[in-house]
Design brief:
- With about 150 residues, this protein is an alpha+beta fold.
- The chain has two domains: about 50 residues, no CATH class; about 80 residues, Arc Repressor Mutant, subunit A (Orthogonal Bundle), CATH 1.10.10.
- The chain is built from six helices and six strands, in the order ββαββααααββα.
- Strands 1-2 form a two-stranded antiparallel sheet. Strands 3-4 form a two-stranded antiparallel sheet.
- The longest helix has 14 residues.
- The protein is globular and about 45 Å long.
Length: about 150
């Protein structure tokens, strides 16, 4: 496994005060045969553009943000099941929880990517990962298996 702290004198990197060196942290990288799978899971290589996949935020937020997308998804799924007046639009859900899109979207994508809820998407949804979220039979099985 490769990883650790190294110093660089990259001409394009911002200079650190004092000596002109920048400290960079390398995340652990799996063996070459596993790295292709890692890239496929987190980076989408489509014609003419490269972007992060939904799974990148689901996985990395659990380690680098103060919330856990899997736990947020479970809370969202439980509320979809147990509250008949629970909203189905992400904007209303975010308002109810007091969350921003940056936190709600990974939870919605967690449910969508694992087919644990009915999640409808379309072009032009602005900051939201979906325009409608609803409970399904899989939502009930998911909540029951975690409680």
């Amino acid at each position: 496994m490769i990883g650790g702290l190294y110093e660089t004198r990259d001409a394009h990197a911002p200079l650190s005060p004092g000596d002109g060196r920048q400290k960079c942290f390398l995340l652990p990288v799996p063996r070459a045969d596993q790295s292709a799978k890692l890239v496929d899971n987190f980076i989408s290589d489509e014609p003419y553009w490269l972007h992060a996949t939904e799974e990148l935020f689901i996985e990395f937020d659990a380690h680098f943000m103060p919330w856990k997308p899997a736990a947020d998804a479970l809370q969202l799924a439980a509320d979809l099941l147990n509250d008949d007046s629970f909203p189905s639009t992400p904007a209303a859900i975010a308002e109810r929880y007091g969350w921003e899109a940056r936190r709600l979207n990974p939870a919605i994508n967690y449910l969508k990517n694992r087919q644990l809820a009915g999640v409808r998407t379309a072009i032009g949804m602005r900051q939201w990962a979906a325009f409608h979220v609803e409970k399904t039979d899989a939502t009930q099985r998911f909540v029951k298996s975690r409680t």
